[in-house]
Every structure is written in C-alpha cells, then in structure tokens.
Amino acid sequence: MITWNNLDKLTSYQELEKTESVDLAAVMAGENGAERVKNYSVPMAEGLAYNYAAKKVDDTVLAALEKLAEEAQLTEKFEALYNGEVVNTGEKRLVLHHMTRGQLGDAVEADGVDKRTFYVEQQKKIAEFANKVHAGEITNGAGEKFTTVVQIGIGGSDLGPRAMYLALENWAKKNDTFKMEAKFISNVDPDDAAAVLNSVDVAHSIFVLVSKSGTTLETLTNESFVKDALKNAGLDASKHMIAVTSETSPLAKSDDYLAAFFMDDYIGGRFSSTSAVGGAVLSLAFGPEVFAQFLDGAAAEDKLSLNKNIKENPEMLDALIGVYERNVLGYPSTAVLPYSQALSRFPAHLQQLDMESNGKSVNRFGEPVDYVTGPVIFGEPGTNGQHSFYQLLHQGTDIVPLQFVGFKNSQIGTDVVIQDSTSQQKLCANVAAQIVAFACGKEDENRNKNFEGGRPSSIIIGEQLTPASLGALLAHFENKIMFQGFLWNVNSFDQEGVQLGKVLAKRVLAHETDGALRVFSDLLNI
Length: 526
Prior knowledge:
- By secondary structure, the protein is an alpha/beta fold.
- The chain has helices spanning 11-17, 24-27, 30-39, 59-71, 74-82, 115-135, 159-174, 190-199, 217-232, 276-286, 288-304, 314-328, 346-358, 390-395, 423-440, 467-488, 499-509, 515-523; strands at 41-43, 49-51, 109-110, 113-114, 148-152, 181-185, 205-210, 241-246, 260-263, 333-339, 376-378, 402-407, 417-418, 421-422, 457-462.
- The protein is built from 18 helices and 15 strands.
- It is globular and about 70 Å long.
C-alpha cells in the first residue's frame, strides 16, 4: 500500500541528515578521482551515461539514499502513475505523458477510450498529414507547397517544442531529413509575432495553433495577429492553419482549421513535447520518422526508470542526489550547462519543467511543508556560460550544483584543426576541465586567485545528439523531476502559481482595478 508522507517524517531522511559530508576536493584528487570517474557512472538509453563522480556522495551517502528511495516508495509511486491512478491530486487527474511514447504497465482507460490507442492514433493522423504536406498533396490556396511551419503557443506549447526543434535542426539538415523551417510565436508582445511574420513568406507558411482549452489569452491574441496578416496578404486563413487542442475545446471542430489533432487533460503542457503538441511541428519540420525516433529514445529511458536499484536507475539517482543537495547540504539552485549549441534552449525548457512542477510550498494535501522544495534552475550552453556567470559558480558565496551535458561528436561534422586540436576537442576539453576545477579548486596565496573547490557537478555524456538521444535526455529530466516531487510529497503536475496573474491581467483589461493595480495600469497607459 502506498503512503504519502512528508520528507522530514521519513526515518531514512533523518538518517541521511546525519551522514558525514564528503570532502569533494579530496575524493576527486589523483588516482582516487580517476577511479571515481570510472565507477560512479550509470548507463542510460541511446548510448548516454549519467556520471556523478563529482557529486558530494560516497558509499555511505548512497546507502542512505537507497533507504530513502525504498521508504519513500519511489518505484511504487511511479508504477501507480503509469498504471493510471489519480496522481495529480490538485486537479484530480491522471498523469499520462509517458504513454505518448509507450506503455509501461497496464492498459489505462479514461474518457471511455484506451489512452495508449488514443495517443498512437493522434500520432498516425499527424504523420499522415505531415506526409501529405511534404508530398504537396496538402497545399496553400494557390496549390503551392508549404515551406515553413509556425507554432503559436506559450509555456509548454512553446518551450519544449522550440527546444527540441533547435536541438535537431542541424542534425536533420546533415542527415537529409529537414523538410520545413519552423518558427515559434509565444509572447503576447506584438513585436514577437510581427518579427516572425516579417521573417517568413506567409503565403507558403502553415500555422499550428496550440491551446488545450482553446481559451489561452496570449495564444488566441497571437492567432488573431496571424489571421490579420494572412487577410492583409489576401489569403484564406483556414487554408493555412491547423489546431492542436482538446476534443472538447471550441477549436476542435471549427472550420477555421485545415485539421485538428488532439491532446487531453492528462498531459501537462511542460510534459507535452512527446504528444501532439511537439508531434505536429516536429513531424512537419523533420518528418514523422524522426519524431518516432525521438519517441523511441524517450520510451527507452522511461524503462530504465522502473529499476528499483538506484545505481541502475539514472533518473532516480539524479533525483535523490538533488534532494540531498537541496535539503541536507542546503544548496538553493542548480545550473544546467549543455556543452552543445544545439541545446541552447534546453535549459529554458528545464526551467519551466522543474520550477513549475516542484515550486510548491504545500504538500499533496494542501498542508504547508517545513522544508525547502524545488531549486531555482538556470543555465546557458558552454562555453558561452564560462564567459558569463561561471565567475559566481567558481568563487561566489553560494555553492550551485551543476548539471553538465556533453557529446563526443558534433552534429554537423564540419570542424577544423587549430593548434593541434579540433573545435569539438576544445569544447570537450573545456567541460572536462570545468568539472575538475569546480570539484578540486586551486590554492593560491593571492586570495583573489584562490579556488576553494568542493563545488559538485554531474554530467550526462553521449556519442552524438540525435533524435533518439534527445528523447532519452528529455525523459531523464522529466522522470528526475517526478521522483523529486514524490520525495518532497508535492503535486508536480499542477501549476496554480501561474493563474493569479492571469486573473488580475483580465481585471486590468476590463478596467476593473483599484489601489496599486489601478495606478500601475495608469502608468502603463492601459
């Protein structure tokens, strides 16, 4: 039987608090450090590996984390989730994003249908539509092929799909699967939509409107912006737009769209990249086969998350170490640092994924918790970040745990040898150097040049960023965040924190304001 208890009520957590802190600089020095790097590694799917040698853990801490995983019933709670229990207690909903890429357990029926069948049917419909667009069977009003796809959405309808598109754009071009350029409109700031529309040929563009409810203010505003541009160009908007929405939304059966593809309430926006939300734009941009590879990679990583042995479950281990760093060592933030330009927007996606999921101060039952929960997430690609905020990471007063991602090979393959090494070798040398520099530091009599070290990091290493390895990488972080939510006993699958601002914004637009809200409205000339 599953029990949902606060973290600080678990006996194993109290034992974890009593473990002796690891001297990271000492254990990472010399040959001992070399052995740690070899041994503190967990294989992931699609040729990836999670290496935690530079984390402040040893066998004693790992044994305590293993006890915590067992007492917190992490495996059982994940099993309950993928078998269709109502894990989203805030909204009283199932959580089924894993089922968009495979079925981990029992068949799940909701709304009178088998949900795995439902998601597969939507993927097939998207694939058929995309193939017809690519073949010129679905065209614009003049019978000409579409060359660009533009996604209109915000939050999870933008951040994940945009990050995945950018991650695979150059891979697709190199591997001859690039079908259509993709653009994204998200911000209600009119400059966002105007800039995108000015950069594309609207006559040869197909627009994907993404809104589960069909009522999202920013998205509908941008849709009107796009429709106005199409009208001004003498084009029929209904020949240029498709919708990704729920079956019950006002968009579902509207004549304003060439087609509609469906999602449901059981997939939160930030977890929707493997659903129709990501499927439509990525299938149009790269072809359905590439999107299928992406799903396969995510499904393969999901299977690893089933393992009860934390040393063979990279997501669970990453989650446990993260909770240890947050709640025992007291580190308030985490930096995500991909040494891959293709992952330039991946930290932004993880920022939403993590902070919207676990940025909670009450437990699953609405009771305040007496411990810290989700960390602040930020990041940029290396080596750009090294010349930006690494100063604080190395010598600042706060210790910030680091999550590196690196690949042995570049996506495009174009490189040059300068000073006896390629650019890719220089990139990889930098990430290796940073891990050791953060962990071991450097003593110097000049205090301004002294590095204390002891700053923990992990790295996910892969051969190359491909659709399959990207899917595995995405699933790793989705499942890590899920396990951390279980440990903190929070509901990781609602996001009430985004609602209050929406309500007040509507009051401002309706001129129903008083006090400070009225004055700010006047200052902004609303």
